[in-house]
Amino acid sequence: MSKYHILLGNEAIAYGLVECSCTLAASYPGTPASEVLSTLLGLKRQHALDLHAEWSVNEKVAFEVALAAAYTGRRAAVIMKQVGLNVAADPLMSAAYTGVKGGFVLVVADDPGPHSSQTEQDSRFYAMMAKLPVLDPTSPAEARQFVRMAYELSEQFEIPVMLRPTTRICHARQDMELPCFSGFRQTPAFDRNPGRWAATPKFRLMLHHQLNEKIESIAQQAQFYPRLANDDPLRLAAERGNRSGSVCILASGVVFAHTKEILADLHLYDSIPLYQVLMPYPLSAGFRQELLRRYDKVLVLEETSPVIELQLQNKEKVLGRTNHVVPAAGELLPEVVEDIVRKFLDLPSAERIEPPNIAGRRPTLCAGCPHRAAFFAIKKAFPKAIYPSDIGCYTLGLNLGAVDTVLCMGAAIGLAAGFYHAYRAGGVDHPPIAATIGDSTFFHAGIPALLNAVVQGTRFVLVVLDNSTTAMTGHQPTPAGGMTVDGHQVPQISIAEIARACGVRFVETADPYRLPEFIDLLKKAGNHTRDADGGIAVVIAKRPCLMDRTQPRSWTPRNIVINDKCKSCDFCIKHFECPALQSPGEKMPVQIDRTLCTGCAVCVHVCPNRAIEIAG
User: Fold this and answer.
1) pTM score > 0.70 for this model?
2) Which one, out of 155, 372, 565, 610, has a CA that is 20 to 30 A from the CA of 482?
3) Residue 327 in 3-state DSSP?
């Protein structure tokens, strides 16, 4: 008996992977893709599936683990967000040459906007560069359907296939039928073939020629041809196309869904040809030629870059991002698409009621977050320092004035080293440099950078903000936890021991809740960077994330009160920014929101007037 369920887009992708008998899935958490592997783990437990699923230490490792499974003929998948593909770019390029034996699906969630990323980059350009096919779903249900199409295409041509949902697909919900999962019956068998799997440059050239032949053949696959919204293939739609006049619209991904609804609202759905591009790359040469022969003007709507548009290679007929008909940055939200379509069709501008301009609250660290205490201590210990930081919850240290740079995963350490070398080579004394990096990010990309910084003789303080989880993306485990995602005990990897193994001589661990002691430790670390025989100092700020309910609480919440010494200076609010501390108005004493206060008592050490105290 079939059951229907409302699934998140990422859940739908996970269901698609399982119903296609994926036997191995590896990922590194990153919004908007994080829920795919989490859902796979739940399905594995619920249905006792023969599936290995892991949170890998980074995306490069995740890609390689999954790829090896596909080398043995088994279906595998790797899941990441768009900036994670930067980390996995090296194996991606080579995997396009070697190909696979079993189906291999690369799920890359792009983030137009961006909502939770450093960039708006379009992963389809990676597919073009690597010469891999990429599928662009328009809904959660289609994303699930495309998983099967991707596996079949991958196995037919022995090639990795990219599935590229965007944030609006990943986080949308749709009602769909749940499958009955069958058992996996895929026996691994690795065919030893060094000429393919370990190819030297001579053989790589041969593999490149084979890859070119594959991609040309894939472009001719009829099931991946762009199709009219009524599902008629291009070659059968000449009558409708001629009847519509001299213009048409091409769209892919969630923008296709927006465009379809907008044309219907404008009563133009039956008169303006609207093509859905399922596979933005490779785009059939035959389709391109026929499209440009038939229409005088073609509007291309796609996120985020002109991947389809560039393949059409006709600036006179094709309108899109390259000629500024479509904005060069930002999401193509429905209202943006409507404005573009109206202008393209010479229709009057839309009349809209502007929403009220209500100021929002800027993002801030949670009440009681140990990172807030660590950042306050860093500012106290090094008030005139340079503060390189990294990717995570702690990026919000920007609000506390303790973050100067945020580049990419692991960059805090490399930038700190670069700042040191810049001042030293410039013949001037370097200012204090206090870098911050999270525990998960340290494992992901910080270790090689730290090793390099030690070898190159740099001097700075590195604070590892260790909250014992990957907090920003949903509390996925780190290598320090000693437990896999499915509950198996594994060795606990010590950040302190890794730092010492990298050659750091000053490594100390402390609790940032103990604010005075933590400030003293940071000053001691700063002195080490200035000593004649000193060097890099690593301070591990260790305190579990309050939002992670799996972590034990090793402290008793305290009852915090404001006494009559409060001078309404708002120092605690401006420089500590705990949401539980609130100002009711100008020149009025600070108040404590009891619904938010965690009783961590760090704020007691913050007030310069000693107006915050522990009751009783």
Assistant:
1) yes
2) 372
3) coil
